[in-house]
Write a structure and sequence with these properties.
Blueprint: H1 2-27, H2 30-38, H3 41-68, H4 75-91, H5 97-110, H6 113-141, H7 150-169, H8 178-194, H9 200-225, H10 231-244, H11 255-266, H12 271-288, H13 291-298, H14 310-314
């Protein structure tokens, strides 16, 4: 298992670089240069403003999940950590280094790295489930290049929802095997951190706002790159591109460009325009994440702990 995991970790950047190389091979570097040249001040300002909303919502979702698991986490520190996380995700290979970093940092402060990493994992997973639901709903309602595959996507999503519901209702059990302990931990996390009356409305609302923020950013990027297609056509493409962005990447590059090239070509808008849109989007979100670089610099100076004191946590 260790060898397989190591091979997968080594293969992830190779796959991302390979995807990017295929796009460059087919289309050349022209669409990439076009995207860079198309970026303007208005797009960057809009991206930065939307970035504030999505980062705050991410911190809101994270603190909700962490508190459900019994961890102390202040909201201002969570916002700073989320900015830092996004910046690291967009500048380092893998696309998840920032999330691992915020989980480990939080865990060290609360003296439970494992539980803190689980909080980050559940927060990210919950957000991706909501994003998948929104994507399926939009693909069903609006025309898209993958509409014939929608029934398969719906079936997989229904299976995931049923599995989560069963885990939430599962009895802890009394087995002592490793699998039994893992099953109890997962069931306990789902019940305590995701499905409580206090948690799930916050998680759903915050995730919806994040999805809408990212989709609007993508549409602005498409308009900036020169796309004049109606919103009813661009919005499904935005959601498809966002699903690809959860795949391993190299500083955000790779799957995003491949997915947008394919989606725009399938929609009749041209693969070149898709890549240019992806580049504009990448520049917008990178600029929006720059406060995370300030958080990293500030980390060199004495700072407050990411964890709250016990009394503040209750408040």
């Amino acid at each position: 298992m260790t060898t397989g995991t190591s091979l997968w970790r080594s293969a992830r950047p190779v796959v991302a670089v390979g995807t990017l190389a295929v796009v460059v091979w087919y289309l050349g570097i022209g669409p990439f240069l076009d995207g860079i040249r198309a970026v303007d001040r208005a797009a960057l300002v809009v991206g930065a403003g939307i970035g504030v909303l999505t980062t705050v919502c991410c911190a809101w979702r994270w603190t909700t999940v962490a508190h459900g698991l019994g961890l102390r986490l202040s909201f201002p520190a969570a916002v700073a950590a989320c900015y830092r996380s996004v910046f690291l995700n967009l500048t380092l290979p893998g696309g998840v280094v920032g999330d691992v970093h915020r989980g480990v940092s939080h865990g060290r402060n609360v003296r439970d790295v494992g539980l803190a990493l689980r909080a980050v994992a559940w927060e990210r997973t919950a957000g991706q489930v909501v994003e998948a639901v929104v994507t399926v709903a939009v693909l069903v309602a609006l025309p898209s290049p993958v509409r014939p595959s929608t029934p398969l996507v719906v079936g997989v999503l229904i299976a995931v929802v049923i599995a989560v519901a069963l885990l939430g209702r599962a009895r802890p059990g009394h087995g002592h095997s490793r699998w039994a302990r893992v099953r109890r931990a997962i069931a306990g996390d789902v019940r305590g951190a995701l499905l409580t009356r206090r948690a799930w409305p916050v998680i759903v609302l915050a995730s919806l706002l994040i999805v809408m923020g990212h989709a609007i950013t993508f549409v602005v990027a498409a308009r900036t790159a020169g796309a004049d297609a109606p919103l009813s056509e661009l919005f499904p493409l935005a959601l498809l591109a966002m699903l690809a962005m959860v795949l391993p990447s190299v500083a955000g590059w790779g799957p995003r460009e491949g997915a947008t090239a394919w989606a725009f070509a399938a929609a009749g808008l041209g693969a070149d325009l898709g890549v240019a849109t992806a580049v504009v989007y990448g520049v917008m979100v990178l600029v929006a994440s720059l406060p995370g670089a300030l958080v990293l610099v500030a980390a060199w100076a004495p700072r407050a702990s990411i964890a709250e004191t016990g009394g503040a946590a209750d408040a």
